[in-house]
């Protein structure tokens, strides 16, 4: 008999009441608990499993590959790592260098370290969730942060705030770090942020941990023609097996040569094997396009059902480019801060 009390350490993920659901198995978009009850998984393992739960093709190929591959190597520099780096560089042709890490939070903190070493500046202007490490645990992600980095300043997706912070910290800003939040903001917002970064000599860092491998080939920033210096990736790289990356231009990644970015667990060769297989299957099956198509159909069906049932609800999804969008004003004519307050910046699931 399983003891639910033994999972007390998961209280952070069970904020109001302890979950009575203990999963036993999953297949595709379905999952089964220990009582045999079936659930529809609409999270795709929080985005880490773009091929679906327990994908038989991936499992078979991984098992076959690991019969001939070594699981752990004495160095993180391996053949499989080099192959995966090449594949990711092909997806991000303007960002030719790749540095692998273990988790999304590791990637975001590494990106900050790289930007600071590259520019010699301390300040990071941020918007969105970038993981659970101390430097990012500030309002609204934490009401009582364990540590506050005075050089991390949140502009809350408000371009007026961003402009003021750029001017007020002139010559001290290393990078602007943004999570796209494609369900809340249109691409023009990131495009405008990119234009604002350039005159100040500030690196643009795009956090695509959540959306990168699901949104489009080459990620959100490439899809919408944004010039980014650094991109962070994690969920979806290796079908849920722990692996993340910082992808950057040759110029920006000079900072990686100066910074300490050690990571013991990158000697786990199977993570790179899984990453290569995930990219291979994703390309063959056009996974990103299928996710977009299925998501749009699901969004329409939900919206139709809500309207038919006269339920006041709005279904969020990727917001397309709009000729009528003003990057400094919402449709109601208020500032982008007003947009955040109206729709509420989503509490994006933590980088795991």
TrEMBL record:
Give the keywords, sorted: Aminotransferase, Pyridoxal phosphate, Transferase
Which cofactors does it use?
pyridoxal 5'-phosphate
The molecular function GO annotations come to: transaminase activity
Question: Domain of life of the organism in this record?
Answer: Bacteria
Q: Which family does it belong to?
A: Belongs to the class-III pyridoxal-phosphate-dependent aminotransferase family.
Protein name as annotated: Aminotransferase class III-fold pyridoxal phosphate-dependent enzyme
Organism of origin is Mesorhizobium shangrilense
